[in-house]
Amino acid sequence: MKEGVIFRNAKIRHYILCFIFLTLPGYSFSSVPTTSPEVVLSEVLYHSPLSSLPAGGERGEFIEIYNPSCSVIDLAEYRIQDNNGNKDAYILSGEIAPGQYKTITNDRNGFVKLFDRFPDMDNMSVKLGNSGDFVALYHNNKSVDLVSWEKAKPGWDLTAKNTSLIRKSITGSTIPTDWVVYSGGNIAYGTPGTGNLPRPHCDDATEEEDLHLEVSNVNKTIWINSEGKFSFNFTVTTSKEAVISAKIHCENINPEECSGPSVVASALSQPNVPTVMNLDYPHGIKAKPGKYKFSIVARTRSGEEIQEEQLITLSEDYYSDAKGKTGTELHEALNSIITNQVVFSYKAVWDQLKYIDEDTDNTSNIIVQYAGESVPKPYRIGGEGKNDPYAWNREHTWPKSHGFKKESMTAYTDLHHLRPSYRIINERRGNLDFDTVSSPVITLKNNKVGKQAFEPADDAKGAVARMMMYMDVRYDGNDVSNVPNLMLVDQTETAKDSPLMGKLCTLLQWHNDYPVSARERERNNRIYERQGNRNPFIDHPEFAQSIYGDRCLDVLKRRTAG
């Protein structure tokens, strides 16, 4: 970070390639008298989700601190330690500005893997125990704050596996009720570098609020086309009127490959009004795959500046190995592309669904499948919804009784077909095949339950079809957890214990009649962030006709003629 420049952390967790280095004039806070406690602990991730993933040792556990005062504080006078006392004590470094959060991690690579941002400090010597431990913050030799978990300290019963503990208020330095378990939202596992603690109110009444910058709606991965070009949109929101400049720079690319014109996006933002921007790379040397930086600067008329600098993966076309293939060859190529994925526990699915099925118009809610309604995230079976028929549950779109009854099998927790659904609809649907129902036994939220099949409401039909096609292609009998060859067949009343599901040609018709929605695309992107694979039939709807069209040609012709 450049001297005198404050890098504000926005909500963005997605990062983009940068080709042209961007420098900034100085911007700094002035010191004013302290009106509230100095540095406090604000977040801790002690049980990382990476501990169970193939990465193994890259855990990325972290501690976060916050400055609620009106002074710039020298962190060299502070240290953190755990139950090992001074043996593993870690001395902090640098300065922390008023209202600023800073993160310290024991593993830089794991932290970047989890949160797609850099920590402020790393190589932390403090070890965060998974089965009861604490972190104490010291100013010189005086203990000034503490957070504990899993009964390591009396009264501290908090337990947070695969997610962080977050401070929600500052009523005291050792108050357990000041802390809660992070429950999801737009970011998995925690919110390092950001938070909702009160900003300091300083005595200087003439001092204006600092300029804030928020960047959102940027895909984590940008795809390079066959010509080495790419284009992407993102949204910028500032707290004051400001000129926004975004540049791609050459830091990670050979200088001789930077002969093309600069890639620049600029716009004038209005206070607290989201501004959608576009940045293209349409020229010059082909862009190379890899992780890169992206810089966005906001500057007010008075000269106040703030910058965001983040990371993203630039990748070759995800479906490059499928190009030119059709029918069975396309099916096999797609299977190879989407097979590798992160596998979650069934318990972890609750929080994953809160993110991938989040209502983007109300981030406290999720959208339930089949009904398409917005429901509070906590109102689920076993949670605040208890056993309410209209609390949400985890729906296996491809029923687990049709091929994968064990939780250890990959398909059991595959996010591409797991959806939140009202308990009553989930139960009434059971393991029925999908088909048109002319004489329903019962109708729930425009979904028809028949004796032999289940017909979703129109708004859900296209998404259901594409989820079922994904499962048919993803699981071809070559899965490492022994999921059998799942197959779509053109029939209903498939045997309960068989890996077959129907009705293929009805699903293909629904796919054609109900095109991919913006919400489906967003869900696909979010699953890719978490699980690491995509649904080909959302990205390339034409694949469905190529793979299944010949099997349904006569059926679809008869339906069209009828």
* Proportion of helical residues: 10-25%
**Strand coverage percent:** 15-25%
The assigned structural class equals: alpha+beta
Instruction: Give the uncertain stretches in residue-range form.
Output: 1-36, 53-57, 252-262
Output the radius of gyration: 26 Å
Q: How does the overall form come out from the CA principal axes? A: globular
Query: What is the count of structural domains?
Result: 3
Protein name: Endonuclease
Organism: Enterobacter chinensis
Domain LTD: 25-184
Keywords: Endonuclease, Hydrolase, Nuclease
Summarize the structure in words.
- The chain has 562 residues and is an alpha+beta fold.
- The protein has three domains: 40-181, Immunoglobulin-like (Sandwich); 213-316, Sandwich (Immunoglobulin-like), CATH 2.60.40.2550; 320-561, no CATH class.
- Helices cover 18% and strands 25% of the residues.
- The chain has nine helices and 29 strands.
- The chain has a five-stranded antiparallel beta sheet, with no helix packed on it. Strands 13-19-18-15-16 form a five-stranded mixed beta sheet, with no helix packed on it. A four-stranded antiparallel beta sheet has the order 5-4-8-9, with no helix packed on it.
- β26 and β27 form a beta hairpin.
- It is globular, with a radius of gyration of 26 Å.
- Mean pLDDT is 83; it is low at 1-36, 53-57 and 252-262.
- One of its GO terms (molecular function) is endonuclease activity.
- Belongs to the EndA/NucM nuclease family.
- Residues 25-184 form the LTD domain.
- This is Endonuclease.
- InterPro entries: Endonuclease-I, His-Me_finger_sf, Lamin_tail_dom, Lamin_tail_dom_sf.
